[in-house]
């Protein structure tokens, strides 16, 4: 679209794992960035689709599927926010839990100097 969001961005946001997998297996770039540099992983974290192992019978596996296909957990948007910042700000506890073990540090600051913890507290996400 006008903001360079791909079908993968849309599928990640709505959590449509079947479409996500089809797009990825057809060659879609899991690290494609839109005009504000959001990746499908950012979009999945923003939508609060919680994660489950791919073998689990739940429909909310978008984030995990992207991670399985080498989505960049350290990707930054134009505000220097990572998917962890986005998940923390959007109260996506399971997404945060899936991302944290994959990071070398959770104390990465965005352009305003805020870490994921700052975003979590600001949004009332006290579980983080």
Automatic annotation (TrEMBL):
ANK repeats lie at residues 3-35, 39-78, 79-111, 112-128. SUPFAM superfamilies: Ankyrin repeat. Transmembrane segments: none annotated. PROSITE patterns: ANK_REP_REGION, ANK_REPEAT. Keywords: ANK repeat, Repeat. Pfam families: Ank (PF00023), Ank_2 (PF12796). InterPro entries: Ankyrin_rpt (IPR002110), Ankyrin_rpt-contain_sf (IPR036770). This is ANR52 phosphatase. The lineage of its organism: Eukaryota, Metazoa, Chordata, Craniata, Vertebrata.
């Amino acid at each position: 679209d006008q903001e360079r969001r791909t079908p993968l961005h849309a599928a990640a946001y709505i959590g449509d794992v079947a479409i996500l997998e089809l797009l990825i297996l057809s060659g879609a770039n899991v690290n494609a960035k839109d005009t504000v540099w959001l990746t499908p992983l950012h979009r999945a974290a923003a939508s609060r689709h919680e994660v489950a192992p791919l073998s689990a019978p739940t429909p909310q596996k978008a984030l995990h599927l992207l991670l399985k296909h080498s989505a960049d957990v350290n990707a930054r948007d134009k505000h220097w926010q990572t998917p962890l910042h986005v998940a923390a700000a959007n109260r996506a506890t399971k997404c945060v839990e899936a991302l944290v073990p994959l990071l070398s540090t959770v104390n990465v600051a965005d352009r305003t100097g805020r870490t994921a913890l700052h975003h979590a507290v600001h949004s009332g996400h006290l579980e983080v």
